Amino acid sequence: AQSVTQPDIHITVSEGASLELRCNYSYGATPYLFWYVQSPGQGLQLLLKYFSGDTLVQGIKGFEAEFKRSQSSFNLRKPSVHWSDAAEYFCAVVSPGANNLFFGTGTRLTVIP
Amino acid sequence: KAGVTQTPRYLIKTRGQQVTLSCSPISGHRSVSWYQQTPGQGLQFLFEYFSETQRNKGNFPGRFSGRQFSNSRSEMNVSTLELGDSALYLCASSPDGTGGAYEQYFGPGTRLTVT
Prior knowledge:
The structure holds 2 protein chains of 2 kinds. Chain A is built from no helices and 12 strands. Chain A is an all-beta fold. In chain A, the strands form 3 sheets. In chain A, strands 2, 5, 6, 10, 11 and 12 form a 6-stranded mixed sheet that branches. In chain A, strand 8 and strand 9 form a beta hairpin. By secondary structure, chain B is mainly beta. Chain B has no helices and 11 strands. Helix content of chain B is 0%, strand content 52%. In chain B, strands 2, 4, 5, 6, 9, 10 and 11 form a 7-stranded mixed sheet that branches. Chain B has a 4-stranded antiparallel sheet with strand order 1-3-8-7, with no helix packed on it. Chains A and B meet through strand 5, strand 6, strand 10 and strand 11 of A and strand 4, strand 5 and strand 10 of B.
């Protein structure tokens, strides 16, 4: 069975500091991978996705993620966090051939001035 | 293009009642998926509709049902509401696509409270 693990429930960073949110997946083959962000009371917004090819993918709002097959990881990074980045971040996978996203439990990001 | 819209945004129902939630996908998108989000269970897939047919279903009881119309708009229905059905229900649309090789665009959700 596939699973997605986001080991950090809550992360606090200072504005301007770098950020890395961890995501590990368990699946027999390489799934399609996504990062979504959810602001309070809002739906989910797609930050970036990985289907194949270059393992470093760029997304919106200055985010990037790197797919590492050997570690079954797809960590999200941002070099300099802004206060507006405070939100909950979800890693998600979908199996090639399936249609439903399978989400991790999310990481809540707090940004302090 | 307008985004995914969901109505109503907030809903309060009593245990035992039924509820219908509506979702209008992005124009041109034919796939609509529904997800339930709760603090305890996180985000869980309910079902997906494509061209008016349920193409995939998650592990939810039969009280949860849905349908899709010819204009791709979708509704989900929950009958005999239970307190545990209180959640944010999210709808997502995507273009024609198979095998997961597509992006899902989410609406703002409907917050359902069951009392």
